[in-house]
Design goal:
By secondary structure, the chain is of the alpha+beta class. About 35% of the residues lie in helices and about 25% in strands. It has a seven-stranded antiparallel sheet with strand order 1-2-3-5-6-7-4. It binds ligand 3IX.
């Protein structure tokens, strides 16, 4: 009886190990074919500036974009280009592996499904504005954006604001208060400000509002640490 049970366990273990190995191998195949498609199938895609209007942009997003493009003409605001790899943002990416990587916010090939956004920076005011339209793949509660993706867009907006103000930084601390759920497909106005720079510490604040400023969805404070020189 005991022997039969032990044999049963051994068979089960063997089966699950085989399944596990299969999953790993299958994953590796999928991942390496992604790398392949990023590096070799879409060379022009890599150079694309994603911070420009595309057909998935809502009219509200276009209106805000046009408003900031107008503001850019008179000085103050500058549109920040948006690429799908950090290597195209920073010259000489220290982590470049040669097999291709994607920025978390830009890891979908189709427009409009994930993070649809563009950023504008105001150097004098140390402000970064991000115009954001969360796509259907960012769902958390039914019909609304996942809290983690809200944290991501806040970290990226405030992080980019800190990078453009002080150079390379890492997020050390991020505190978010979620006030109102963010509807998928809505147009959001995300704004960050570098409040204080103290040695290597960069203190920023950030909020997310509806495109018309009527609804305050979330507020945050962040601490970034400048890279050691
Ligand atoms: C990344 C570049 C991107 C460039 C993009 C360009 C364009 C932008 C376009 C689109 C936007 C896209 C991206 C936006 C950019 C960035 C957003 C994403 C950022 C991230 O996604 S980033 C990943 C998550 N992040 C981490 O993975 C950090 C893990 N962590 C560490 O790597 C270390 O922990 C570190 C480096 C933080 C510090 O380490 P360290 O050794 O250099 O410094 P040390 O510990 O000595 O601290 C020095 C002083 O800071 C104080 N201090 C430290 N930590 C503190 C804390 N938590 N609270 C309060 N105070 C703190 C100490 O108390 C001391 O203070 P004091 O000087 O007064 O003693």
């Amino acid at each position: 009886m005991v022997l039969a049970m032990l044999r049963g366990c051994r068979r089960l273990l063997h089966k699950s190990k085989t399944l596990y190995t299969y999953r790993i191998q299958h994953q590796e195949t999928t991942i390496s074919s992604c790398y392949y498609s990023v590096r070799h199938h879409c060379p022009t895609e890599e150079l694309r500036d994603f911070g420009l209007p595309n057909t998935t942009w809502s009219q509200n997003l276009r209106n805000l974009y046009n408003k900031f493009m107008e503001l850019s003409k008179t000085g103050g605001w500058t549109r920040i280009p948006s690429h799908n790899t950090i290597a195209h943002h920073l010259e000489g990416d220290p982590l470049e592996t040669g097999i291709g990587k994607r920025m978390f916010l830009r890891n979908l090939d189709s427009d409009g499904l994930g993070f649809e956004y563009c950023m504008f920076y105001n150097k004098d005011e140390r402000r970064m504005v991000c115009l954001f339209q969360p796509g259907p793949y960012l769902e958390g509660p039914p019909g609304y954006a996942h809290g983690g993706c809200i944290a991501t867009i806040i970290d990226s907006t405030a992080g980019a604001g800190a990078v453009y103000t002080c150079g390379s930084v890492m997020t050390a601390n991020l505190n978010i208060t979620y006030h109102k759920p963010v509807p998928l497909g809505s147009t959001l106005f995300v704004e960050s400000h570098v409040d204080k720079i103290q040695g290597r510490k960069v203190y920023s604040s950030c909020h997310i509002q509806s495109y018309d400023g009527v609804i305050l969805h979330a507020e945050a404070t962040a601490l970034f640490i400048k890279a050691n020189q």
